[in-house]
Structures are given as structure tokens and as C-alpha cells.
């Protein structure tokens, strides 16, 4: 690899008018081949003419102001559920929009409420007959005429959104005062499509210097319903993957025509839970997602074709208005995007980006953003901040993922002028860019070594929500911790849905399956376990030699006498309180090794303390003496292993992403797969370090994920001798073997 | 009240042959009017002729040995579920009794297994057709011919019990070697009834000196299934209130004839949970309980009539074989018992005894039993023991209940000889007997004062399981703590079932209702909340002015968007993980008073620390700003109050029985009922003390529930002045006002 290839290219720099010199200097220092604008910055002619590629951001659905405000019935809309209200007497009046932010929502009474809205008696769960309620369009109220005192009622209704959420968020966060409220138009309306396409033609004409159109993103934002009181309950509902904000009578009519059945408001409202990604999707909702995905591809392709016909590339931002884009869908390549840009805090987001189907370029937007303060208001590029240390910490998190999966480009966003007083930051980013280019080149030479078995992560969603749960990391949703651990390990991972297992069993090559999550969630699987074929196929597979890792409340779907559907395989079940009278097996924990309270076992060999996890799961117990208890909380097992037929299983009451826990999971993958004899191949002795072996390049990369210097030893396969490496804090070593 | 009435009567002393002098001395000292035998002791002629009443214990169903062993098909039996087994191929063989104690159970193959047994595919939840399985009676196995690999199967089967459980427990606990294993006969068999009645005739003839037959108890023991390995899993299933051990083909046939429908094995087995009292009963099981209760009354009456015809009284022990006796049933008086004896550890058991319907004498068996060691093996009447302190602590626990509800007699059990070296114990019991007689006399003069409102405790069972959950106190089942608190408070309490509320609404006089327990349990209500009339009637009642106290997971029965059915009234709900995407209201806690972290409020006024309860309930959140948060764990409310329409509610994440928490609950009853202006009437200023005002006698009793001296002030109603009393440790004061 030539040195020059390490110092130039694959780097997107945010330019800033008024700082042309700095822009061009840093473009040189960081080897940027591309300059972008950001929200709040402009590129001046001097920058546009610098010979670099130029990214320009564009959000089509909010691009057509003031037309949008002049055509309110062409705005995007969604179903909302009114706040529950108890009937005191036979007549009950509900103000549907009460509690919602009136600058975001207005009632849609232009589409016939009697056709689209529903009123529910939530006490009985039954819909109130339409003849029993009426809408006062002037007052914005619904009156139920035959209410039962003591029953609780809600109204599912349609509301137009008059302020697009990202505009709203930026506006209110930055106190933009009387700056325009942008509204998002509904791209499924024929009139809107005409307006957007006409706008796009003009925009392309006006942006001659632009080489890459960075779409933000396509048409529908993730769901975000704001409350009226921003102090106490601003986010009444927000989900990164929910299709709630795609709904309209037009969409519902087209859906019915296509699928032969009609969806109702309750299919979207779900008693106020909406279709959060954290919950197992219904079959009807999955149909609807497919329907919208198809539409977004279809109209999206039309827009992308125009962009490409204008000689520009089309990149899409994998956030904001990404709903319906679905980069993990097999259909994603139909869009014809040239690139996909993901903002990353964690390694799993790197893998999410890499996992997109098709061949478009993968670009990461790294943190920190060039803003004065970070996400929680802490100083970054401001007095008291240490942006270099921030950058190092973000980089070591993301780097683990880049080590395992190919990424094409990286870049930054924000106000470039802010980095001027931080020369060490400028230096560090130059180094990051070089590290990135080295890793990219290695991937280009061939896939890095991975373990001789594949791992399956089993959820209700499967591959469509691979390498994420719903958006960025959420503490307490342990599957995030698990995928963050996996995203830096040398193992091939597939994401499987319960429906996949029911239909086709476990795919060939997979030797161990992880099911992790809280009961009822999409991650554990919830109602999707009701199909007995899932349990049957998995059970038969484990009995024949498969591996199973259950974390939290795996396979939980209560039936009398059993909570975990895979309890017999795990040898552990949870008594949620209905088996108080059933005695619990009194286990003898596995004898401890060097760590008090932690059973000595292959999987715990690198632990220096007892993993204390799963504080929210109570009533755990082992089924019999075949379950080996490695750790316990009083009489409740928190870490166990078991032989299950010819297979093996591990249960952990919880999991959090730490170096030691990542190692424990890594070992558990080997042990449950029955590959523990191969454990020492290409693994580091020090849990704070990781390595990747690139067999084609014959290069070994060793990384230090820690903020202190570390020493580690790697045992290659075959006759090669073990290698010991000293790494500086956050360091990387490249060894030719 | 004359002094003499305080020194004699209403006391049952356990006599012991060989210690005649001690027996008669202590009879004099303690004022015993009655002498009893105990398990392992005899009464000699000198004692029998002492002029005291004589209790003799008798357990009819195990009285007819060796006839019982010679007629195995006349023994008691029950359904058991085999351990779940996974099919590896099409043929699966299960050994039903595997894992069960073979000295307790043998297979019943004399009643046609194809008629009575069931095989279940627990993966699908479906019964396996009877033609697909067969029984090998010689090997004691069941073979399933059409099993699906990967599915889990169980066999529900009938087993005779060849060793009666109390005999088994005493035998094994005391290492009785080759002493006879007593078996219990099935009283529903006509042949058994003949044998028992003939035996009873003979027994009555032989026990001329006996004045009271103490039945232990009637016919069916509480359920107790032992495992094969007593070290790791002795109690496979044990429930104080389950009717499992009453089952037989004869009972099932008679049931079908009476009720017009047939019960199946699964009605009893419930997937291995059986019908634990902790779970909400099914309607079918409730029918079966009524059927057995009817039989126990019917045949019991026949036995009792013989006893009474012999000039003796019939007392029944409210434990052991008490199933079907049901002292809380309206039909209980039909037995015609002269007395009911309850062994008590706690005040709620005193109330349980007092709560029996009808007019039979209520007698308490106090602790400590006169044994060398206590229940957990700690020394009592042995070196290192302090039986006097034990007696004081048990007495102050029970006394709170005796203060509130009339009890007729007390007594002890065990080996009297053991008390000889403990003169201070002898003195203390003499004092206890006097205290008891004083309280009994006060109750005889009229009911003590209670608050001007009634309290309802709402469970799936209602009054049938009033003043207990299932047997003695179990830590972690918080309703025990609540009823233990209530049992010593000056409030009238009714126990209501969810079905009562659905059918009749809230009874008149009740001003506040408590619902306390874990989701799914009989205490919280579980599936019984599925009847919308419960929620509707309670909601309407609270809205009109009722009070509601929810503890733990009150009214929990999940539906989309709501976990607590009464969430709107409590202003608190629990997100079990399916509403992660729904924002939670950010509350401002009520300003603290003298205790950091505890909101100042009427109900917290006597707290000196934050009650830390409900560690097992996660995901708690308030609905809006109308819920006042008095205590929180991070962002989760753990103690809240709210106005709900014209009513009031309180929510607590948990409850444990302590003096401060009892006071908090007491205040909460007043506050939710809207009676806080009456709070100071007849309450003590010191939470470690309690008082009872007997208006007819014009006497105020003040008790110290603490092991240290206490001072307290009581404010009488009306113009009377407050009284301040100094009490010694465990002490009592009697004041004429």
C-alpha cells in the first residue's frame, strides 16, 4: 500500500463560507476529497471551485414552502389516540388534540371522520358504534352519546402535521424565533409529486457545482409526536422505525386495493403504543410497511433518476426521513442510490451501515459533530471541552465495527470554524483518516478472518432490523449491548426472525443462536412465540447439536407452568409469581475459580469479577441439576450453562457492553457452538484489545479499545508463533505475519 | 371484672404422662381449665382424673391402619403432571412418576388411564389424542406414538398416596426409622365411610375421659407433593388451600352428575401450576371446591354428630387436613363444630380464626411450641434458647389481632416437661393468660371502637380467603404484610372478590379499597380483571368519591397501552417494556418535609425515613401532573397520591409490615376515605404503640408492640383530654376513662 493512498481520499469535510482558508487547509491536512454544506452553513464560490467533490443536502418533502402551507390537505398526517377519558355519565366529550402540541398537529376533518376515525371503549376493548358518536368540527371535539359511566374512552383520529419534526426540533432547540416553520408534504398525493419533481428540476439546475445530492432522507420521518407541555412530556411518542407518519386516507385506500383488506386506525394506534419497533409487528402492519416501502422505492427512484440524469450522485442519509427506505431490505438496491450515510455513535451502527443491501458507497458521519456542545449540552468545541479526547473515544467505539466490515468513506459535520483553536484535534483527525484508509484498503484485499461458525441473532424482526433495535443505543434494552459487543467480534452474524425459524428452521452454517430481551418485546419475540413451530424447530435443532444463548427473558410468552418457551433447553425459567407454590430446585453453584462467587468454566475464564446483570428479572430458577450455575443472586441463577441433548445452552439474566462481558459472550459463542478447542485462534489475551487477521494481506491488526496503554498477545492459527504487542492508549498496531 | 376471672379458664395446657406434678402445678399457675395430649405425648390417669376438661386429638382418615394399606384402591389420590420431556423422534416414552417421591406416590392404573389421564403437547398446548399413546402398567411408563420431534410432552396421571403427608413429614424429620407409615383413606368411598364410622364408634367408647375431640382436621390435607430428591427439591408443590388432594374418579363422576359437566385432569394440573391459591381460581375449579366443601360438610356432620352424641365436644384444627372445611364459608356453621383451633404466628391468623362463620369457640395455639427447637432449628427450650423472649415476641405479634377481634381460648402444645428449667417462662405465660382473659372480657362487653368507615381488600378470592393468602406468612407476597398491618388496626375490614364487584359493585359502608399483589396473582386479581364490569364499577365508584389504594401491581392485566386497569384512577401505570417509545411524564416530586426524599403529606406525617419498597416492580411512571409523587426511585414513582374525580387514590410500589409502614397505611386509609379530619381519634402518637377503646367498658387499652419501653399519647374523641402513657417493653396499659 502506498503512503499516498493513506493520506488522501474518502473523507468528507464540512466547509464553511467565511473560513475558506481553513476549509482548504484542513481539506489538505485530512485528505478530504469532498466538501459538504451543513445545516446552518453555506459553501462560498471559492470552496465550490476548489476541485473537490461537493455534497449538498436536500430534503424534498420540506422543500416546497410556501406551497405546503397553502395546501394543508396535502400535508403529511397520522393517526393519534386521544388521552383516555373516563365517562361520568352517558354523554362524554373528548377533545382529541388535548395534550398534543398544537404547532405540530391540527385535526384532519376534511377526510370524513366517520370513515377514518374510531372511538374505543378501552374498558371493554370494543369499538363504539359510529352512530354513537359525533364530531364537532368547529370545537374540535368528539361527543359519545351512549357512554357507560366508569368506562374509559379514547378517540383514534387523523391529524395533519403542520410543522415538520426536524425543523421543529432545530427551531425550538436553537430558539430560532420567527424563522419559518417548514411543513412536510405528503408525497403520495399526485399534486405533491408534481410539485416536488418540478422543484427538483429547478434545484438541480441551480446547483451546478454540486456533485453529490445528499438526501435527508426520502419522504417520511421516523415517528415523533410532541406533547403540549414540552417541560413535562415533550416526546409523547417517538420511534425510529415506526411507519405511523406515513398514513393518509389515500395510502389506506391504495393499500386496501392492493392487499384486498382494509386497515383501521387501531392497526396504527395499538391502544396508544403505536407500532413501536420495540414491539413485535403484527402481520397487518408488516404488509403496510411493505406497501409503503414499495411506494418510497417507486417515487424515490423517479427522484433519484432525475438527480443522476443531471450528472450528480444521489446519497441518502440513514436517519431522519429514512422511513420506507429500509437499507436492510432486499429491495433497497432498487432505489439505485450511489451512497448511504450513517451517523454513528457505536460500532453496531457501523455494522448497520455496512449491512445495507447492494453496492452503494457506505459513508460514516463521525462524532463529535463540530458544535460548541455535545448531545447533553456538555462543552465540546468550547471552553472546558476536550474534543480530541471525545474524538478518540468515539473513534475506538466505531473502529471495532470498521475492523470487521467494509466502509467506504468517513466524514464530519457542523461548523468547521470551531476547530480552529484545537490544533491537536486537527492532528488527531488526520490520523483517524489515515487509520480508516488503512482498514478500508485491507478490507478491499479480502474479508478478515472469522470464527469457523456463524451466529444467529433471533428477534421478531430478523434481518430487516439487523444491527440495531430502534435507532441509537438505549440503556436498558440489552440487545443493544449484545449487538454492540458482537459488532466488533470476528464472527459472522445473521439476524433471524421467529417467522424465519418457523418457516425454514435454522439456516445452515449457524451454530449458535442468541435470543435476548424483555418479555413481550420484539427482541425477545413476544407474541411471535405463539407459533409452536418456532419452539419446535429451535428445540429439535438444539437437541441435535445447536447452541443457544438466552439473555434476560428469552422466548418469554407465558403459558401455565412455563414462562420461557425454551426453558427446557436453557434449564432455567422465570416464575413471574404464578408458581409460588411450586418448589424450586436447590442448586449447588459450580465451584469458583479465581473469582469469588463465579463458577470456573470456559466461558468465565477471562472474568476478573462476577458479572452483575439482570436486576430487572426476578423469579429465576433452574429446572434441575443438569443446569450448571456459574453465578447467582441469592437463590436465583444469573449465569448458567447446560447440555441440552447434543447441544449446549447458556443463560444470562442480563448483559451490558463492557470489555469483560464482551469476552464472556465471545467465549459463550465458542462454547455453545462446541468450538472451544478453536478458541485461541486469532484472539487477544487482553480483553481491552481486539484483533483482526486479514489473510490475503497477511496482516494482523491489533487495536486497543482502552484509554490506557495495553499489552496483549495474539495466537495465530497453525504453526505461527504467538505475537505480543504493546499498544498506546486508543492505539492500533499493524503486523505483517 | 373480678380478679379471679383473670386467673382461671380459657386455657389449654399440654399434659405429659410422667410429669403429673408439673402438669397440675402449671395448670394451677396458668389457670388452665383444659388439658390436651400432643403428638408424642400421653395423658396418664392422674391427669385425666384431675377434673379438667380433656382434649384428645384424632385424625379420622389416617386412623384406620392397617385397613388402609390393605385396600390401596381406597386410598386418597391426585393428579400429577410428569416432568416435561422433549421428543427426539416419533416415539417418546415418559415415566410419569419420575422425579416424585416413591414412598408417597404409586401410579393408579386400576382406574382406566385412558379415561382419566391426559397427554399434552405443551409446545402446541393441545391434548394428544388418546389413540396416540398407551400405558405400560408393568413398567409404569406412557409411550406416545405420534410425537413431533422438538415438541415437549407431559402426562397428567392419577397417583395413589401411600403415605399421608403429615405422618411422612414427622417421620422423616424426626428419623422415626421403621415406625409405621400411615396412609390416608379416601372418605368419599362408601367402604371407607363405613370403616371410619365404625372406628369412630370404638374410639369414642374407649375415650371416656375425653371431653373434647380435637379433629386434625377433617379429611383432606393441603396439597403437598414431594420430589424424589429431598435435598434439592423436596417440595415439588405445596399449597395450603389447593384441593388437589381431594380428587378421585369417584369424585369426578359425582361432580359431573351434580354439575352437568365433566372436569379433566388439566383442570387440576394447570400445566404443572395446579390450582395454587396464589393464582386466580377458574370458575370450574370453584365449582369443584363447592362440590368438595359440600361433601366434607355432609360426611363431617355425620362424624361430628357421633362425637356430640357421645357427650363430647368436637373441635377442629384449622390446618393440616383442613381442605374442604372452609371456616370462612357461609356454610361452615353447618358442620356444627363446637370449636376451631388455629395455630398462630401472626396477627392476621388471629383474625382468620375470629373470622370463621358461626358461633363455635375460637381457640389459638400460641408459639413457641414446647419443643427443644423452633421451626428453623434454632434453640427454644434448650441451651442457648430464650423461650421467654420468644413468647413475648410471638405474643405482641398475636396480641394486636386479639385487641381487635374476639377470641375465646388460648393454649400451648408440645412437651410440658421442657418448661421445667424455665421459671421465667412459666411466669410470663401466667401473665399472658391474664392479659388474654382481660381482652376477652372487654370484647364480651362490646365491640371496640373502629374508624367511621369500612375498608375493602379486593382479591380474586374475596371473603373465602379473608385474613390470609395461603397459609402462614410468605415473604415477598405483600398482601400478607398488608393484612398483617390491617389485623391490628381499629378499622373494619371486608374481603371482596373481583366477581363481587362485577356483580354487585362496592358494598355500602366501604370507603376505601385496597388491591395489592403481583400481576397475574389471585391477590392482584389477574385474569379476573378481564371482566370489564370490575373496572367499570370500581372506576365509577371512585369517581363518585371512593378511595383506592393500589400496591405493587394492582389491577394488572396487560392490554395494549395499559398495564394497570385502574391506571387512570391511580395516576400511575407500569410499562413492562412494550411502551419504551412512549414518553413518560417528568414529575416534580412533592416538596419534602422533615425527611429528605419524602414528600410532605398527611399520609407520610409519621415517617422518619423514606419507605423503600417494591424493588421488583420496574417501569413505573405517572400519567400526568395530577399525580403527586411522595417518593421515587430515580425517575420511577414509588409512593403517590391523587384526586380521582371526587375520590382519592394512593399508589405504593410495595409494602412491608413495619410500625412506620403500618402507620402510613393507616393514614392512607383515612386520607383516601376522606376522613383525615377524624384522624386523631383514638390513635397513638407513637407508631410502636397501638390502642383500642372499648366504649361499653369505658376502658382504653394501650399496647407496646416493641421490645423497648415506649411513651405514647392517645387523643380520645369528644371533650376528653389526651392521655399520655408509659409502657414497659411488650407492655400493656388498661385505663379507665
UniProtKB/TrEMBL annotation, chains A, B:
Residues 9-450 form the Lacto-N-biose phosphorylase-like N-terminal TIM barrel domain. GO terms for molecular function: 1,3-beta-galactosyl-N-acetylhexosamine phosphorylase activity. Residues 682-733 form the Lacto-N-biose phosphorylase C-terminal domain. Keywords: Glycosyltransferase, Transferase. It is an enzyme of class 2 (transferase). Residues 454-676 form the Lacto-N-biose phosphorylase central domain. Its EC number is 2.4.1.211. It holds the Pfam family LBP_M. This is 1,3-beta-galactosyl-N-acetylhexosamine phosphorylase.
Amino acid at each position: 500500500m502506498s503512503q499516498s493512498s493513506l493520506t488522501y481520499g474518502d473523507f468528507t469535510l464540512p466547509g464553511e463560507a467565511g473560513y475558506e482558508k481553513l476549509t482548504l487547509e484542513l481539506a489538505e491536512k485530512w485528505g478530504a476529497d469532498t466538501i459538504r454544506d451543513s445545516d446552518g452553513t453555506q459553501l462560498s464560490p471559492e470552496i465550490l471551485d476548489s476541485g473537490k467533490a461537493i455534497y449538498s443536502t436536500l430534503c424534498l418533502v420540506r422543500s416546497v414552502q410556501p406551497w405546503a402551507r397553502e395546501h394543508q390537505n396535502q400535508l403529511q398526517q397520522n393517526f393519534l389516540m386521544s388521552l383516555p377519558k373516563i365517562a361520568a355519565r352517558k354523554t362524554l366529550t373528548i377533545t382529541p388534540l388535548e395534550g398534543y402540541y398544537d404547532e405540530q398537529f391540527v385535526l384532519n376533518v376534511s377526510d370524513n371522520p366517520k370513515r377514518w376515525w374510531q372511538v374505543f371503549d378501552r374498558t371493554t376493548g370494543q369499538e363504539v358504534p359510529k352512530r354513537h358518536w359525533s364530531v364537532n368540527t368547529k370545537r374540535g371535539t368528539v361527543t359519545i352519546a351512549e357512554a357507560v359511566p366508569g368506562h374509559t374512552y379514547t378517540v383514534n383520529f387523523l391529524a395533519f402535521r403542520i410543522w415538520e419534526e426536524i425543523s421543529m426540533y432545530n427551531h425550538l432547540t436553537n430558539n430560532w424565533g420567527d424563522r419559518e416553520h417548514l411543513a412536510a408534504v405528503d408525497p403520495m398525493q399526485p399534486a405533491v409529486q408534481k410539485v416536488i419533481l418540478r422543484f427538483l428540476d429547478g434545484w438541480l439546475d441551480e446547483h451546478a457545482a454540486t456533485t453529490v445530492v445528499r438526501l435527508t432522507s426520502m419522504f417520511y420521518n421516523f415517528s415523533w409526536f410532541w406533547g403540549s407541555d414540552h417541560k413535562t412530556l415533550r416526546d409523547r411518542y417517538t420511534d425510529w422505525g415506526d411507519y405511523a407518519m406515513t398514513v393518509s386516507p389515500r395510502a389506506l385506500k391504495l393499500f386496501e386495493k392492493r392487499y384486498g383488506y382494509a386497515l383501521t386506525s387501531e392497526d396504527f394506534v395499538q391502544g396508544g403504543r403505536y407500532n413501536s419497533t420495540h414491539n413485535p409487528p403484527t402481520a397487518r402492519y408488516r404488509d403496510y410497511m411493505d406497501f409503503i416501502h414499495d411506494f418510497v422505492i417507486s417515487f424515490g427512484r423517479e427522484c433519484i433518476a432525475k438527480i443522476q440524469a443531471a450528472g450528480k450522485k444521489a446519497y441518502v442519509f440513514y436517519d431522519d426521513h429514512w422511513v420506507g427506505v429500509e437499507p436492510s431490505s432486499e429491495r433497497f438496491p432498487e432505489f439505485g442510490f450511489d451512497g448511504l450515510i450513517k451517523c454513528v455513535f457505536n460500532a453496531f451502527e457501523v455494522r448497520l451501515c455496512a449491512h445495507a443491501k447492494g453496492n452503494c458507497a457506505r459513508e460514516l458521519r463521525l462524532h463529535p459533530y463540530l458544535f460548541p456542545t455535545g448531545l447533553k449540552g456538555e462543552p465540546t468545541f468550547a471552553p472546558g471541552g476536550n474534543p480530541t479526547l471525545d474524538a478518540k473515544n468515539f473513534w475506538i467505539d466505531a473502529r471495532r465495527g470498521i475492523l470487521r466490515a467494509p466502509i467506504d468513506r468517513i466524514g464530519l459535520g457542523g461548523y468547521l470554524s470551531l476547530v480552529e483553536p484545537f490544533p491537536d484535534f486537527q492532528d488527531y483527525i488526520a490520523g483517524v483518516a489515515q487509520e480508516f484508509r488503512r482498514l478500508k484498503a485491507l478490507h478491499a484485499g479480502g474479508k478478515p478472518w472469522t470464527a469457523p461458525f456463524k451466529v444467529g441473532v433471533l428477534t421478531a424482526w430478523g434481518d430487516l432490523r439487523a444491527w440495531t433495535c430502534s435507532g441509537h443505543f438505549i440503556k436498558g434494552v440489552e440487545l443493544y449491548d449484545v449487538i454492540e459487543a458482537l459488532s466488533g467480534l470476528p464472527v459472522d452474524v445473521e439476524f433471524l426472525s421467529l417467522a424465519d425459524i418457523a418457516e425454514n428452521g435454522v439456516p445452515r452454517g449457524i451454530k449458535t443462536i442468541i435470543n435476548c430481551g424483555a418479555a413481550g418485546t420484539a427482541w425477545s419475540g413476544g407474541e411471535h412465540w405463539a407459533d409452536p413451530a418456532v419452539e419446535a424447530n429451535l428445540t429439535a435443532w438444539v437437541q441435535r447439536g445447536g447452541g443457544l444463548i438466552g439473555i434476560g427473558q428469552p422466548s418469554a410468552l407465558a403459558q401455565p407452568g412455563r414462562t420461557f418457551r425454551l426453558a427446557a433447553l436453557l434449564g432455567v425459567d422465570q416464575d413471574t409469581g404464578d408458581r409460588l407454590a411450586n418448589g424450586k430446585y436447590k442448586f449447588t453453584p459450580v465451584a469458583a475459580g479465581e473469582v469469588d462467587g463465579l463458577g470456573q468454566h470456559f466461558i468465565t475464564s477471562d472474568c476478573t469479577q462476577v458479572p452483575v446483570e439482570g436486576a430487572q428479572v426476578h423469579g429465576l430458577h433452574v429446572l434441575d441439576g443438569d443446569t450448571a450455575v456459574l453465578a447467582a443472586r441469592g437463590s436465583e441463577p444469573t449465569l448458567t450453562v447446560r447440555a441440552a441433548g447434543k447441544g449446549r445452552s447458556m443463560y444470562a439474566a442480563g448483559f451490558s457492553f463492557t470489555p469483560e462481558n464482551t469476552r464472556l459472550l465471545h467465549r459463550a459463542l465458542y462454547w455453545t457452538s462446541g468450538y472451544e478447542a478453536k478458541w485461541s485462534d486469532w484472539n487477544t489475551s487482553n480483553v481491552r484489545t481486539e484483533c483482526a487477521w486479514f489473510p490475503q494481506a497477511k496482516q494482523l491488526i491489533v487495536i486497543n479499545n482502552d484509554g490506557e496503554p495495553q499489552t496483549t498477545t495474539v495466537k495465530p492459527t497453525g504453526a505461527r508463533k504467538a505475537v505480543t504487542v504493546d499498544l498506546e492508549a486508543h492505539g492500533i498496531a499493524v503486523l505483517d505475519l
